[in-house]
Specification:
Helix content: 25-40%
Radius of gyration: 52 Å
Shape: elongated
Structural class: alpha+beta
Largest sheet: 6 strands, antiparallel
Distance between the termini: 167 Å
Strand order of the largest sheet: 16-17-27-26-22-23
Number of strands: 32
Length: 812
């Protein structure tokens, strides 16, 4: 082996040994070196070519290495270089640097075409590793379906990208394309403006949200997260822009669907009104789910009843309850309250009737609603897809949700069908709750209305008008009531009350209390005595109630008795607001009464207050729902009521019109509680229609009483009542003289009846009985009962009055 052969063997051994080097020696290339060094070796391994990048890498000039064996530049040669049979194609080696350090490089060799020389390319190993990792990262990112990487030059032309433009031929995007070749023009301009700003300023953009549409599918909007960085040469000059696009469309759709489901759970069901609940449901669906939405309900649902099950085509007996948006141009046949047209017996309709959510194409929808001609009346313009979901709850199909997508919109997906099932299920429960409340509220209202007296009455004492406004807060009626009870001697009892609790139990309690008051009123008790007995009744009702309802039993009540003869009104309150008196001159004041405890509280006394009332005055009784509203406290509400009464109670205006106008004026929002108002315009019996005679404590005065009564009836022209009246006066005066105590008085009142009253100071209750044949007395009250239309006895504080009434024939 000659010297040249030895050198070649040494060179091959050096390169072969280099393939096993795994560590880097001390030192390294200058920090600025980032290129690729190149050198040319002849067949002997002598350096015959040396580039500038090789000088940058090793620090040696070309004249310093030309003609030298390359082995002199390689550190850590193996001890047996003759074992190498060939020059390796690639590997790692440590090169000597002019400064004395070594450089760990990775090299690749290739034979120069047509020559025995070798071209050696080398770069620092750390740089090679970085490039390999970067390439691996780029390949991994490029393989992601949701991530698009694009490298743009300085004029924003695409240099390299993994984008698939979704073209009909499915070809990938070619270098040289622009964003406008993929996206709609407006969206491309928007993104290019962002990239241009990055290119000019060097400030990166991170996670900028963009909504874009592709040229070939403009109807579908994509949500992109854009990040962009400027690419620079070694000197810092801009080389282009790298853009990273992450498609968040699916995540955004999922988030929106979750938000939509949350909105339905939060907003639907807050109202117990069927129509309001349906409208809330429709409003949530637009535009989050579709362009148009309608909620149709079975006709029975509007009234709170259960709908009948229907299969097949024909009239579905549904009406539109809600439309969204209300400002949309709806076809003539779709209007709120309009009935749903008869439907054809279509397989998709059968699926809906069996509880499935169905997606219709335009043609299928036209077929279901009965052909092309009705479609003009019931098909919104430019409809592309329709979804119909049944509102099914507790085994009942209450109605349907219909959602339309119009124009260039995406079809409904299976995920959206599943979401609509959830929405329809929750909406159906809310509507069914509202339906059942409607049924219960209607029953309570019917019971309440049946238990209330006629709205208007006309009696000798006063004309009355009552107005009742139920609460609109979803809790049912609250048992407020009013009453006007005619009493003997032309008097009138006025009542206003408010029961604790709501719904049918409160209405039932109200009915029992009203019946009890009417019974007690017939006993002609004083107001304080009547309330005392009524409080005892409420205590008994509370004792009979279930253990958990004891504290819920109770009521407030105001009881007043107006006497048109004396023109006085006696009243007592059991925890009830005081009445308002409007005088004929228009002035109005709250009556100053001493309120007693509510009826549920026993052991506390009630006090009767008596006031003078001019004829033509209006006495207003009410419940606290009229004065206690959210925007006003009770005192302010009472002032507003007093002022409104003073303004509205005019003599030339009917009381029922006045009452309705007052409620409209005072209740400007949904009432928190039932509001009840009873107006009574008082009358008076003329002085000439009454007559009094003091009864002496002498049995001989009975004949004088008969003579006085005869003269008075003759003066009034009531000659046809002379005989029965003489007998009644005789019996009542005899009882007063015999069993009563002075002073005693006889009073006659003429109106539509003739009232005969005898008052004495003995409070003992007279008793009607049947006298035996041998009895000398005991027939007086029996005769009075036979001669009069009705008779009775009332008690005052220190007296009693026995009265009788006889009808007066018309024309008398």
């Amino acid at each position: 082996m000659d010297a040249s052969d030895m050198e070649n063997a040494d060179l091959a051994g050096a390169f072969r040994g280099a393939t096993s080097v795994s560590g880097a020696g001390p030192g390294g290339p200058p920090p600025a070196f980032e290129g690729l060094a190149a050198a040319v070796l002849d067949a002997r391994g002598t350096v015959v070519g040396w580039t500038g990048t090789a000088r940058e890498l090793t620090g040696f000039r070309a004249d310093e290495v030309h003609g030298r064996p390359v082995r002199e530049l390689v550190a850590d040669l193996p001890h047996d270089p003759r074992s190498a049979a060939h020059v390796p194609a690639t590997g790692r080696v440590r090169l000597r640097h002019q400064c004395g350090n070594t450089i760990d490089v990775t090299f690749r060799t290739t034979r120069v075409s047509g020559s025995a020389d070798f071209l050696v390319l080398a770069a620092p190993t750390p740089h090679i590793a970085e490039h390999r990792h970067g390439a691996a990262l780029l390949r991994a990112l490029s393989a992601q379906n949701r991530i698009t990487i694009a490298l743009h030059d300085t004029d924003l032309t695409t240099v390299q990208t993994n984008a698939m433009p979704d073209t009909p031929d499915g070809r990938p995007l070619q270098p040289g394309a622009r964003l406008g070749d993929v996206l709609c023009a407006e969206d491309a301009e928007s993104i290019e403006a962002v990239l241009r700003q990055v290119l000019e300023t060097g400030v990166p953009v991170i996670h900028r949200n963009q909504r874009v549409s592709r040229r070939h599918r403009p109807a579908r909007r994509h949500a992109l997260s854009l990040s962009a960085f400027r690419l620079e040469y070694a000197g810092g000059h801009p080389a282009g822009v790298a853009a990273l696009y992450i498609d968040d469309t699916d995540q955004l759709r999922a988030r929106r669907q979750l938000d939509l489901a949350h909105a339905v759970a939060e907003r639907v069901g807050g109202s117990l009104d069927v129509v309001r609940t349906a409208q809330d449901l429709a409003d949530i669906l637009v535009p989050a789910f579709g362009d148009l939405a309608a909620v149709d309900l079975a006709e029975a649902v509007f009234d709170g009843d259960e709908p009948a099950e229907r299969l097949g085509g024909g009239d579905p007996h549904r009406r539109n309850a809600a439309l969204a948006p209300s400002t949309a141009v709806w076809p003539p046949g779709i209007r709120r309250g309009n009935p749903v047209p008869p439907l054809s017996d279509h397989p998709l309709l059968r699926r809906f009737q069996h509880g499935e959510t169905v997606v219709y194409g335009r043609d299928d929808y036209i077929a279901v609603i009965g052909g092309a001609h009705p479609a003009e009346q019931f098909l919104p313009h430019d409809v592309q897809a329709v979804m119909v979901a049944p509102l099914h709850a507790r085994g009942l199909t209450l109605g349907a949700i219909v959602v339309w997508r119009t124009g260039p919109s995406e079809p409904f997906t299976e995920d959206e069908v599943d979401l609509m099932r959830q929405i329809a299920s929750r909406g159906a429960l809310a509507i069914d709750n509202a339906r059942r409340y409607t049924r219960e509220h209607r029953a309570a209202m019917a019971l309440q209305q049946r238990l209330l007296p006629p709205a208007t009455t006309d009696t000798p004492a006063a004309e009355t008008a009552g107005v009742y406004l139920p609460t609109d807060r979803g809790c049912g009626t609250s048992g407020d009531w009013y009453d006007a009870i005619p009493l003997p001697a032309l008097r009138l009892a006025l009542v206003a009350g408010d029961v604790i609790g709501r719904g049918i139990p409160a209405s039932a309690t109200m009915g029992r209390l009203r019946a009890a008051i009417q019974t007690l009123a017939d006993l002609e008790l004083e107001p304080d005595e009547l309330l005392t007995r009524l409080a005892d009744l409420v205590q008994r009702l509370a004792a009979e109630a279930p253990s958990g309802d004891h504290d819920a039993m109770g009521a407030t009540c105001l009881y007043a008795v107006y006497d048109p003869v004396t023109r006085r009104c006696a009243m007592a309150s059991a925890g009830h607001p005081p009445p308002v008196l409007v005088r004929p001159d228009g002035s109005a004041d709250v009556v100053d009464i001493v309120p007693g405890p509510p009826l549920a509280v026993c052991g506390m006394p009630y006090e009767t207050t008596t006031i003078d009332v001019e004829p033509g005055s209006v006495l207003a009784l009410y419940t606290d729902g009229l004065v206690h509203q959210a925007a006003h406290d009770v005192c302010d509400g009472l002032r507003r009521l007093t002022g409104a009464l003073a303004t509205s109670c005019r003599p030339d205006r009917a009381l029922d019109d006045t009452g309705r106008a007052l409620l409209e004026k005072l209740v400007v929002e949904a009432p928190r509680d039932d509001a009840t108002l009873l107006l009574a315009r008082t009358r008076a019996v003329a002085v000439q229609d009454t007559a009094r005679w003091q009864i002496p404590a002498d049995p001989a005065a009975v004949s004088d009483a008969r003579e006085w009564a005869t003269r008075q009836l003759t003066a009034w022209g009531l000659d046809d009542l002379l005989f029965p009246t003489e007998l009644i006066v005789s019996e009542l005066v005899t009882n007063a003289i015999r069993y009563g105590r002075p002073p005693a008085e006889l009073r006659l009142i003429r109106h539509h009846v003739l009232v005969c009253e005898v008052t004495d100071s003995n409070t003992a209750q007279p008793r009607l009985r049947r006298a035996r044949t041998t009895d000398e007395g005991g027939r007086g009250l029996f005769l009075v009962a036979q001669l009069a239309e009705r008779w009775g006895c009332r008690h005052g504080q220190n007296h009693k009055t026995i009265w009788s009434e006889q009808p007066i024939a018309r024309g008398s």
